[in-house]
Design brief:
Strand order of the largest sheet: 1-3-2
Number of domains: 1
Number of helices: 2
Radius of gyration: 19 Å
Order of helices and strands: EHEEH
Shape: elongated
Protein name: GpW protein
Length: 79
């Protein structure tokens, strides 16, 4: 059964839901299966907005805000 769900801003998201949504976006699908529920979205833009909301609520860095880490390890002969 496919349905469109309006997401409530008070809904608590899980990492599993975020992973499923990101997989669907990567595959170009407008439907996402969460357990026995299938949710169909109107557009990719709607899915991307929800993904950004989920990332924000879960504290997951987005690619634009993810920071590369450079670690300098001093090396020498130990003398």
């Amino acid at each position: 059964m496919s349905q469109h769900i309006s997401h409530d801003s008070t809904m608590a998201y899980t990492q599993t839901q975020l992973n499923a949504l990101e997989t669907a976006i990567a595959q170009g699908a407008l439907s996402v299966q969460f357990g026995e529920r299938r949710i169909t979205y109107h557009s990719l833009a709607e899915m991307e907005r929800l993904r950004n909301t989920m990332r924000s609520e879960l504290g997951v860095a987005t690619p634009a805000t993810a920071r590369a880490r450079i670690i300098n390890i001093p090396t020498g002969k130990g003398l």
